[in-house]
Amino acid sequence: MLFNKTCKFLLGILFVLNIHSQEINRSNAPKPSKAPKINLGEPQRFELENGLKVFLVEDHKLPQLAMNLIINKDPHMETGYVGLSDMMGDMMSAGTKNRTKSDIDEAIDFVGASLYTRSNGFYFSCLSKHAETVTKIASDILLNPIFPQEELDKKIKRQQSGLKSLKSNPDAIGGRLESVLSFGKSHPYGEIQRNEDLENITVERCKEYHSTYFKPNIGYLVIVGDIQLEPAKKLCQTYFGSWESGEVPAHSYDFPSKPKGVQVSFVHKPGAVQSLIKIFYPVNFKVGDENTAQTNVMSNIFGGAFSSYLNANLREDKGYTYGSRGRVRADRFVGQFSSSASVRNEVTDSSVTQMLLEMNRIRDEFVSSDDLIRIKNNMIGNFALSLENQQTIARYALNVERYNLPKNYYRDMLDKVQQVTKEMIQDAANEFIHPDNCHILVVGNKEIADKLVQFDTDQKVDFYDYNAEPVEAESKPLPEGLTAEDVLFNYVMAQTSTSSIDDAKKKFKKIKSFRKEMSASIDAQGQTFTMEMVEQFKSPSFYKSETIAMGMTVQSEVINSKSGGTQNMQTGKTNFTAEERSSKLMEHKLDSDLYYKENGVTLELKGIENVMGEDCYVLNRMEKTGEKSTMFLSISSGLLLQYNSQNTPKEGESPVMSTVQFLEYQENGGILVPGKTVMDINGNALEISLKKMEINPKLKASEFEWDE
Fold this sequence. Notes:
- With 708 residues, the chain is of the alpha+beta class.
- The chain folds into 3 domains: 244 residues, Clam (outer membrane lipoprotein receptor (LolB), chain A); 182 residues, Cytochrome Bc1 Complex, Chain A, domain 1 (2-Layer Sandwich), CATH 3.30.830.10; 210 residues, Cytochrome Bc1 Complex, Chain A, domain 1 (2-Layer Sandwich), CATH 3.30.830.
- The protein is 32% helix and 28% strand.
- The protein is built from 19 helices and 25 strands.
- The strands form 3 sheets. Strands 18-17-16-15-14-13-25-24-23-22-21-20-19 form a 13-stranded antiparallel beta sheet, with helices on one face. A 6-stranded mixed beta sheet has the order 1-2-6-3-5-4, with helices on both faces.
- Helix 2 packs across helix 8.
- The chain is globular.
- The chain starts with a helix and ends in a 13-residue tail after the last strand.
């Protein structure tokens, strides 16, 4: 099956990107160091008549310039059209009264600049000699957006597709529930987007939002780069001086409260082999609070650093997870405590126990001298290093203005960190760490939910769906007499739009060859990487696939009547035996499910679960290799909607867990195939789109050669 191969492709890419964590030696404690004296440059400031405040940090080392506009508006409710502000921000660059989207894109590309817009402003960078050209375009985008209907339709469609795909991602599900449970549905931070919200976003609402909130008198413009004060003033006056000021609505909300006791919530992810655990609640911790230094040090000791209590316990000592993190986050309005870990199903309750234990530990015990020194040195080093970036200096100056901080707030930060004591750490922990008043959220298989009752104050677990709506946990009964083979063969008939398995076999028999062209994108390390995939099959014994990413062949596989093998950039070249060629060839055939018994596959019909809003039969598979997987097949359509698997790792390797969703089925040569496949593999997202599929193309045997 395609998803098995794609897992291998993704692992190869992850290897290239060096995503896997590197081990470091923490056996020897570092010596304490003095806080270095820092020279925090003072940005030059000026203000336009319309109230726009400008901060300039000159940097003439390179002929470059960056400009960042921030609209300092209050968060507000978007009930009925959640996501309007983000959509408006994205749409600002979709066309103006003077330029089409193509005009803007071409002009930016021509000078080698980058520019993007967002809900609270814009950012661009360019060579300093092109500063006026790009500023002129940015000004046009800011002052004259038209929000074209055709572009809005495209973006809404993409976001609707994205909402569907997020349902397979435990992190996305957990993030949505965390927002609602932590802040409440009546607070802007607790709003989550639904499909109906997107349908309510209109051109008129985008225009209204822009005209209401985009005012210079609540704006801050930060300029960093190769430009002097007077030219900067002239540039700003020329292109932003006509921007009209005006009243902007202010918004305020009640402060969210921590839960009374411990509240355990659960989101069932059918077939999940891993659990995402999140512990969280709101805190009254504002940017610039007097206790910021000691709280940040405490936060890093608890869960912010690699050597933190959480990570040392759950990753290094217990081996429950690849990594666990936690922190206390400051915010202008509402701060938050949050910790998380992704663990194997069977250790979910044990992991929750250890996370709560570490929360109690940092409250009840003094931190060791070694740990305190290590974290301080790490924080001081990172802070000093950050000052090498002029953008950081500009951001600090902006924060001083936005949050009304003392002028020397950042200049004194290192000294304050160095002065933090064990007693201050414990004080901060007792103020912000509350294991007896928290939300515990788990996204995983509901089979482990009963083990979590022990943590809840009321001895119950509340179940929610993807949209944070309460749901019942009971399973629906299976129809009497229905077998696993019935469900699988119904899927085969749905694929072929036939009413009997014999007709399905006849339809598949007519397919002598096929060729697929696919494109894929991977979100990893905060970036999006793309790749192209081509898959070819020729009856009776020829198969070839190739995946190219970042200009490199990540994975290729070839099978012919005499030889075959795989070339992987992670593992190198491997030749197949005759038995392996036969097995893999059967796996790649479109009708492989018809011959599951011959392939040594055993099936078990487990029950009914709701997946992507549809009731599905749950079908467990065991390959002859011993690898287990779960298929979720729509009761209404018969089609495969989701596939979960976990490989059997070799000694010393970690298991690879994947969730695959099949979307947008389309007909090709009388066969229904998914137009989009969305995968989540160990927390890494991969989306595959079918660009083209040919049924019975003319393929030559020479295209399937393999050099052993």
